[in-house]
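Page header: ASSEMBLY MODEL / two components / 284 residues total.
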Amino acid sequence: MNPTAALWTSIVLGGCAQVMLRKGVQNGNTRSPRWWMSMFASNWVAGWAVCFAAATILWMVALARIDISYAFPLLGSSYLLVALLSRWLLKESIPPRRWLAIAVVSVGVALSAGK
Amino acid sequence: MDKSASTALPFAPASAASKAASWAPALFGAVVLAGCGHLIIKFGLNRIRASEASGAAAWLNPWLFFGLGIYGVGTLLWIFAVSRKQINYLYPITALNYAIVAFGGRLFFQERVPPTRLLGIAVVIAGVILMQWSEKGPSSSSTPSQKRAEHPPLSEVKGNECKYRESFS
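Prediction written out in full:
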């Protein structure tokens, strides 16, 4: 697989995974052990597990051929992706100040691969 | 789903007041344990590399499994936090992992942290502080139903039960 394609697929799958997890567990009764047992029967939570595992494998596939200083700046975009997906699919509200905070975190992660 | 099943889990605080904000310690635990998990896995992999053993025997390193276990506990705490707070708020905070891993790498593995990376970590920390600030702003008001899901009125929380939450389906 083309390493750049693997990297982007990993980022998109990783972002989708977190949004699916939120969809699957929001309003869950976390105080009930039975809820924890039945949680993985949810398609959304199963989707999270599969996408997260696939994203991790693709990330390693990509990093085997791509320099981390190229991969990390792209990884920064995952925070923006999760924000957009959560707003679009989960109707989560994002105040302006939080958009700023998300942008700052993204820049920070992009810089973290620096030499 | 049986709503009367209310046996408290160890990390689920009993008092109603702390319950509303219990995603915060769960998030903190998730970030710290994921970072520690990575560092312990690295320690295990270093041991495997240094050892004479080869093949499957080498991979049965207890540190490797301990690290994976710690990471797994961190994931459970993450699920707990996600169940109670918006993902667009929680997810960027997990970037603090890079700070923990860089600090641990320097402390335990004598890894060099280059200046640009140090700057990146400082920017991430600044972003997380801004995230806290975004909670306090006048524009941070979510819809009433979301507010309710995150901070239910105390009158709806009785004893050890959690009636305001819809059962999982």
